[in-house]
Amino acid sequence: MYHIIIGVDDDTEHALACVEEVANLPGDPSEKEVTLVHSFTENPSGASATQLHSVREASEYLEDHGIAYDVNESSGNPADVIVEFAEKEDADLIVTAGRKRSPAGKALFGSVTQSVILNSDRPVMVTGETKRS
Question: What pTM, to 2 d.p., does this model score?
Fold first, then answer.
């Protein structure tokens, strides 16, 4: 059994790119266990992660492909939350979506994906954008 952590933000396309890549990993769906991790940096309405469209779409995709999953929500810096959760759960892989940004944009605004890559001692897979028609 492989435990895979997927960092999910509010972007549905990014969430779907991540779960599609997990479904395409070698092995039977029964060999994969996924935790969708969402960290709220602001949540004035008190929403739960399962209410987010991106999390719901990713969950439905995993269900449709027979992959066991659960959802973890937290608050704080998303990169820190993902890395700490992966360590605590002894995850085999972290999956996150990359964003297209200029080098200056990355320097000014930082990058969750970059922070996860630099601060995790676990393998990290970065997905590109989905090819939807």
Answer: 0.89
